[in-house]
Design goal:
The complex is a heterodimer of chains A (299) and B (160).
Chain A: E1 3-6, H1 10-19, E2 23-26, H2 32-37, E3 45-48, E4 58-61, E5 64-68, H3 73-77, H4 83-91, H5 93-100, H6 105-110, H7 113-119, H8 127-132, E6 136-141, E7 144-149, H9 150-153, E8 154-156, E9 159-160, E10 167-173, E11 180-185, E12 196-203, E13 208-214, H10 224-236, H11 239-242, H12 248-261, H13 272-297
Parallel strand pairs in A: 1-3, 2-3
Antiparallel strand pairs in A: 4-5, 5-10, 6-7, 6-10, 8-9, 11-12, 12-13
Helix pairs in contact in A: 4-5, 10-12, 12-13
Chain B: E1 3-7, E2 10-14, H1 23-30, E3 49-52, E4 55-58, E5 71-73, H2 87-94, H3 104-117, H4 123-129, H5 140-154
Parallel strand pairs in B: 1-5
Antiparallel strand pairs in B: 1-2, 3-4, 3-5
The chains are: A alpha+beta (299), B alpha+beta (160).
Bound molecules: flavin-adenine dinucleotide and FE2/S2 (inorganic) cluster (2 copies).
Flavin-adenine dinucleotide (FAD) sits between chains A (24-32, 34, 49, 69, 102-103, 107, 110-112, 114-116, 118-119, 124-125, 167-168, 191) and B (42-44).
């Protein structure tokens, strides 16, 4: 017999998880229920987080936005939710673009950002944008709470740094000062697991570039060499200020470095070679869009 | 466990529910509401689409216990109490949008939600709103036509 524990408040949720480490949290259920329906998993208990009000909102603190783990894709895109939630997608443009590509309306209505992190799939569509924005994941237990840098959150295929008694509370993001982009390649437009995904964030105020790669390594990863190369090339040539077109060799080298950062595998959805190639194309494309947005912003 | 929910306006309860079973199973097998269909059980086809607290969801991906205390509307709740069909249902029949009918209940709920939010949707809006509903008989043109017709029927100035 499986138990069903329903948390009404965040305190209840943390207490329940402390007492029952074997309880599987369930939020939107779009990953968990597939596993239960197909008998791939039989947890001793389910811990329902969907009623917890503390997970459903977002707030601002010291230039950061804290997005509750229970915020849905539809709230990130602005498809659903009150005006205050719609505002979220305007502030977190990269994440909103990524959320827009997820599943179908029914999946976006239920699926949450916390559930995407909880599953920690290399193909999770939130992850590249969170990496590009250098987000932090706030996790908590009855022992207290801590913030984990997104680079340290993913520890292996579908594995994360979450301890057995911890829950994901929120994702903290300092919105980049410039344009953000996201693109993914799949076998068709709706309802596919990405073959490769890429997110880019430009932060002219801090002179930084952020990247995130999905579906092309055991965990979502940043392309660190590509980030420092591009930030250096833009900075050295004074392009943040001049907003002149990016030189072709800079675009090509950036794409090559992103491609090289991947550690893809062959599987039914694509070969490693195809994934590397696709990533280079995505990197170039998103950089073109983001730089165009940056130049147009100034007009 | 016991699950209590307001389904199509009526409070219903189901006993001896296994906590891992889906809302879809509860509706079909325990509450006698077989309108919502079970085709994939993995969120891919949309034939199980119902409103949960005003939002269209795949009932196969909601754990029974998560629906406890919730408000649900299924395809059975669309027609009037006297049996008069909803304009959307009428339009689906008139446009020939129903072949085997397996996808129809989910499409009706998804389209109902679209028209509640956007009374005058463009074709792109209709396609997007129905992107999570598969029709294996592939009658998509007639389905689009039915939603357009229903939108006309439901607008106050022209509506029946
Ligand atoms: C048809 C379909 C299409 C999909 N398309 C996409 C897609 O395009 N892109 C994509 O990225 N994903 C996709 N998914 C996967 C899924 O929708 C996402 O991963 C979603 O974000 C999961 O969120 P959820 O709230 O439904 O998670 P749940 O299923 O409730 O939980 C997922 C995991 O996270 C854990 N968890 C949830 N909340 C917390 C918390 N607060 N603290 C700790 N652990 C927690 C759960 O224990 C579980 O292990 C799709 C799924 C389906 C069924
Ligand atoms: S049965 Fe639920 S989406 Fe197919
Ligand atoms: S009418 Fe047969 S599945 Fe759509």
């Amino acid at each position: 017999m499986m138990e069903f524990l329903r948390a009404r408040t965040w305190q209840e949720a943390l207490a329940a998880k402390a007492e029952r480490r074997d309880a599987l949290p369930i939020a939107g259920g779009t990953d968990v229920m597939v596993e239960l329906n197909f008998d791939r998993r039989r947890p001793a208990a389910l811990l329902d987080l969907s009623p917890v009000p503390e997970l459903r909102g977002w707030h601002q603190a010291d230039g950061w936005l804290a997005v509750g783990a229970g915020v849905t894709y539809a709230e990130l895109t602005g498809e659903r939710g009150q005006a205050e939630r719609r505002e979220l997608g305007r502030r977190l443009r990269g994440l909103a673009i990524a959320a827009r590509t997820v599943g179908s309306p029914q999946i976006r209505n239920r699926g949450t950002i916390g559930g995407n992190l909880g599953s920690a799939s290399p193909a999770g569509d939130c992850h590249p944008s969170l990496l590009a924005a250098r987000a932090e994941v706030e996790v908590a237990s009855v022992r207290g709470s801590r913030r984990i840098g997104i680079d340290d959150f993913f520890t292996g295929v579908k594995r994360s740094a979450l301890a057995p008694d911890e829950l994901i509370a929120a994702v903290w993001i300092r919105p980049p000062s410039g344009p953000e982009q996201f693109a993914k390649i799949g076998t068709r437009n709706a309802m596919v697991i990405a073959v490769a995904a890429f997110a880019l964030a430009l932060d002219p105020e801090r002179g930084l570039v952020g990247t995130g790669i999905g579906s092309a390594a055991p965990t979502p990863v940043r392309a660190l060499a590509a980030e420092s190369f591009l930030a250096g090339a833009i900075g050295d040539a004074g392009l943040w200020e001049s907003r002149r077109p990016l030189p072709e060799p800079v675009m090509s080298e950036f794409a090559a470095l992103v491609s090289a950062a991947a550690r893809p595998i062959d599987d039914v959805r694509g070969t490693a070679g195809y994934r590397r190639h696709a990533l280079g194309v995505l990197a170039r494309r998103t950089l073109g869009w983001a730089w165009r947005d940056y130049c147009e912003e100034a007009r | 466990m016991r699950v209590t929910a307001k389904v199509n306006g009526v409070t219903r309860l189901a006993d001896d529910v296994w906590p891992g079973e889906s809302l879809l199973f509860v509706l079909r097998e325990r509450m006698g509401l077989p309108g919502s269909k079970n085709a994939c059980e993995q969120g891919e086809c949309g034939s199980c689409t119902v409103y949960l607290d005003g939002v269209p969801v795949c009932a196969c991906l909601v754990a029974a216990g998560q629906a406890d205390g919730g408000e649900i509307m299924t395809v059975e709740g669309l027609a009037a109490a006297d049996g008069e069909l909803h304009p959307l249902q009428q339009a689906f029949i008139e446009a020939g949008a129903v072949q085997c009918g397996f996808c129809t209940p989910g499409l009706l709920v998804a389209a109902h939600d679209l028209l509640a939010r956007q009374p005058d949707p463009a074709d792109a809006d209709i396609r997007e709103a129905l992107a999570g509903n598969l029709c294996r008989c592939t009658g998509y043109e007639q389905i689009l036509a039915a939603v357009r017709t229903a939108a006309d029927l439901m607008r106050p100035e022209t509506g029946r």
